[in-house]
Amino acid sequence: MDKIIAQLRELITVFGVKVIAALAVLFVGWQVARFLKNLIQNIMTKGKVERTLVSFTGSLTYVGLMTFVVLSALGQIGVQTTSFMAVLGAAGLAIGLALQGSLANFAAGVLMIIFHPFRVGDQIQGAGVNGVVEEIQIFTTVLKTGDNKRVIVPNAKLTGDNITNFSAHDRRRVDMEFSVPAASDPDKIKSIIHDVVAKDYRILKDPVPTIGLSEFDDTKTKFVVRPWVNTTEYWNVYFDTMENIKKILAAEAKNQE
Question: pLDDT tens-digit profile of 41-53?
Answer without folding.
Answer: 787 777 666 666 6
